[in-house]
Amino acid sequence: MLKMTGIRKSFFLGGEEQMVLNQINLSVNEGDFVAILGPSGSGKSTLMNMIGCLDTPTGGEYSLSQQNVQELSEKELAAIRNKEIGFVFQQFHLLPRLSARLNVELPLVYAGLPAKERERRATDMLARVGLEERMEHLPSQLSGGQQQRVAIARAMVTEPTILLADEPTGALDQKTGKQIMSLFHQLNQEGKSIIMITHDPEIAKNAGRVFHILDGHLREEEAGC
Ligand code: ADP
Ligand code: MG
């Protein structure tokens, strides 16, 4: 489903090349629940941005759903991003003046769906994340955990191939973080492929496959460790 081979990423700072990721190999299959662990500044978000086609590698090969990402134009990249990837961030990124339901409908507005169909899909998705009683609330009227549920519903409503989450529990207390993790677990059990980035080993334990980024390299933990 997703395959990275020998991926490198460097940034140029003051004329000097800084290698952030070096020779990254990563294969993700349908139904996988992957956690990527690493200390702050190790390149987790940089990797997530490349997986999500928000940024391009300096070198190496990346294919996503049988397409060679390097060969795609900006327009094709935007299309693959909208179709294949659902993004969830640490800071929820909800629009404050829109209700939970309208936030979830937004990607469907961009996709050009009629209003009735949008409402039906957003309502179903919000019920799936346990927010049937909160659909017409504004983000400011919801707790952090509920806001993250709205963000997850918004990421899922277009039925993406992969759910990509960058520190999704980073802004939540421990108990709420655990509840969000069981939601990801439930979505994975229902068949969704998930890649989650975290710096918290406790959070990573929920995933089926655990990777570590260190010194620019990505290494998978052996199963059962
Ligand atoms: P993490 O998410 O693991 O905390 P990041 O991927 O955000 O780490 O950053 C990894 C390294 O890459 C850091 O040293 C950061 O300063 C550098 N970096 C990230 N994005 C850029 C950029 N656009 N330009 C220059 N350096 C960057
Ligand atoms: Mg980060």
Automatic annotation (TrEMBL):
Taxonomy, superkingdom: Bacteria
UniProt keyword terms in alphabetical order: ATP-binding, Nucleotide-binding, Transport
Molecular functions (GO terms): ATP binding
Gene3D superfamilies: P-loop containing nucleotide triphosphate hydrolases (3.40.50.300)
Protein name according to UniProt: ABC transporter ATP-binding protein
Domain ABC transporter: 2-223
Pfam family, one: ABC_tran
Keyword ATP-binding: yes
Family: Belongs to the ABC transporter superfamily.
Entry annotated with the keyword Nucleotide-binding: yes
Annotated SUPFAM superfamilies: P-loop containing nucleoside triphosphate hydrolases
